[in-house]
Design goal:
Distance between the termini: 9 Å
Number of strands: 0
Strand content: under 5%
Largest sheet: none
Number of helices: 6
Radius of gyration: 13 Å
Structural class: mainly alpha
Helix content: over 70%
Order of helices and strands: HHHHHH
Shape: globular
C-alpha cells in the first residue's frame, strides 16, 4: 500500500497492522519503541496521570500497547505506525 493509502487509514487500523506485523515477525524493537513512546503520547492527549503510572508499571505499558490504536492515543501514535508500516509495505 502506498503512503497515500496508509495516510487515509484510521489510527486503530494502523495500530492493528503495525502491531500484528511486529508480533508475527518477532520485531521486539518496534514493540519496545512503541512502549517507550506511549507515556508521552498519553501526556500529549491530556492523560498525565496515566503517563506517570505507566512509567512505573511495565504491565500497564504492555496493556497499553495492545490497546494503543484507539481514540486520542491512537491518533497521537499515528506517526509511529505510519513510519513503521512504510518500512514494511507487506504489513
Amino acid at each position: 500500500m502506498n503512503a497515500n493509502g496508509l495516510e487515509s487509514l484510521p489510527a486503530n487500523e494502523l495500530h492493528d497492522r503495525a502491531v500484528r506485523y511486529a508480533v508475527r515477525h518477532g520485531d521486539l524493537g518496534f514493540l519496545w519503541d512503541l512502549l517507550k513512546v506511549i507515556p508521552a503520547a498519553e501526556a500529549a492527549t491530556g492523560h498525565h496521570d496515566e503517563s506517570a503510572n505507566d512509567l512505573s508499571r511495565v504491565s500497564a505499558l504492555l496493556s497499553d500497547a495492545i490497546a494503543s490504536g484507539e481514540g486520542e492515543l491512537g491518533e497521537a501514535l499515528r506517526p509511529i505506525y505510519l513510519e513503521y508500516l512504510r518500512k514494511h509495505p507487506d504489513a
